[in-house]
Amino acid sequence: MNQKEKRKHLFQTFVRSKGLFACFSLVLSLLLIVGSTYAWITSADERVNRTDANQRKLSAIVEEDFNQVFHWSPGTTKEKNVRVRNTGEMPTIVRISLKEFFVGFETDATDNHGAGDGNGNLKEFGTPSATTIDVKKTNTWVVGNTYGVSANKHYKASIALVDQMYPYKGTRAIPLPAIELNFQAGKVFDQGTPPTVSDTNYWYYEKGYFYYSEVLQPTEVTPNLLDSVSLNATYANQHKGALYKLVPEMDAHDLTKELINDWGIHTTNDHAYQLYKDKLAK
């Protein structure tokens, strides 16, 4: 078979199989679309937008200025700055919720006078519980678990409050109200204290979340949401030696309309909806 006959044979083979080739191409395209759509749906978790139109990275982080306090006296204030920085390559909208964790320990209720007031010291146990409290693992902050301060000295948890979403100006379980969060003056608003038309770059509290009012551009940072934390002078002695942790949790979203449903702010009564509805892609 000469070269001319070979080319003719290849052409005829291609023509006869073009239906199968087209079918394969269609299946491949659908797989790519489904894959892109799935990646886009999960972008809120992955902090990545993978649509064909935009390959830029969506990323933001919480920045904190805070040193762990080992001995915190009632009536004192400790600095704890909380803000958000856009570390990605595209604009983003962010919100923060604050979660509180607290575990207190049994106090010695025995005394020599029969009053039952005790000496106010933490009750000591020589043997640890099966599961012990780890400062870094709040899932171990459970009533009955012990916290070891030495090989033969342990404190037993008598109260545990975990994963408590901070309600701005709302009611908190005792003794959390004695731990006062100090927000940046003039930068945090809510329904009772709404912003004015001239206010910008602020946080608005609604339904458990602090929403940042502006679109955060790459490398930009928000003003502080939180400036410091105070331990009230009336903090009860019975809670001495307790462990407390404040955890800011941040959500970042791209400027797509899906933010409305993803964050559940789709009613016109939501201030967050009014904040963002004109900032999102049409």
Automatic annotation (TrEMBL):
<keyword id="KW-0812">Transmembrane</keyword>
<protein>
    <recommendedName>
        <fullName>Alternate signal-mediated exported protein</fullName>
    </recommendedName>
</protein>
<keyword id="KW-0472">Membrane</keyword>
<feature type="transmembrane region" description="Helical">
    <location>
        <begin position="20"/>
        <end position="41"/>
    </location>
</feature>
<dbReference type="InterPro" id="IPR024008">
    <property type="entry name" value="BsaA"/>
</dbReference>
<keyword id="KW-1133">Transmembrane helix</keyword>
